[in-house]
Design a protein that fits this description.
The complex is a heterodimer of chains A (114) and B (135). With 114 residues, chain A is an all-alpha fold. Chain A has one domain. Chain A contains five helices and no strands. In chain A, helix 3 runs antiparallel to helix 5. The radius of gyration of chain A is 19 Å and the shape is elongated. Chain B is an all-alpha fold and 135 residues long. Chain B has two domains: 68 residues, Alpha Horseshoe (Serine Threonine Protein Phosphatase 5, Tetratricopeptide repeat), CATH 1.25.40.10; 58 residues, no CATH class. Helices cover 79% and strands 0% of the residues of chain B. In chain B, helix 3 runs parallel beside helix 5. Chain B is globular. The chains are: A mainly alpha (114), B mainly alpha (135).
Amino acid sequence: MVLNPSASSSTTSLNDILKLTSPTTTTGPSGIRSVFGSILGGIGNIMMPGLGSVIGNAIGGSALGAAMPGLGGQTTQYLALQQEMENESLAFETASTVLKVRHDAALAAIQNMK
Amino acid sequence: MAWNVNASNEEIGVLMEAAVIYRDSQKFTEAREVLEGVRALLPKSDAVQVALGVVCFQQGDFAAAARHYHLALELNPQSAYAYAHLGELDLFQKDKPKAVEHLKQAVKLDPQGTSGKLARSLLQFADVIKYKEMA
């Protein structure tokens, strides 16, 4: 996605912003999403080998991009994006719950040894 | 030479916590050394075996992790902590039916405790993994 600074004036309409922020292709995740997915994936990998790729792919949105490469209407695009965000939110929440509970279980096991 | 070391419960706790810190800092050699020491002090502890298994798991050595978890279950067949981690291992080895079986056993053995809670969260995670593969 490329933002043109010259287009950012005080008279920019909502449509202009939407056009500027729309991805140029729908075949892959945006840069921010890719980076975000990679970071979370890396954290997961420290605790559970392989977890990173699950979360990373989910947040990177590669699955959805590959499944629906040529979405036409903006409404469909937004619905797909919403679905993708719900999926990645669920994946992130579940993985982060597992990591937290896993740590709590380890501490409880130590407590029980004392 | 025979050693006669009687570590207090508090000292054991400090050693175990140190091992967890080493492990989560990815200093696996140090974590294993500390845990081997604790195992020498508490040879019949299932928790120490599980902790050693988790070190192997986080290193990606699933076979060694499984050996430790099974040893833990030999020491304590009612160890919900061992069952929960065994289920986690099955999940990462893509053996979902076995994972569900072990995780449900952990929930059954420790419905109110942290091991049961861990098993329940892993069961939810198993559903998400299935969902992602379908997407």
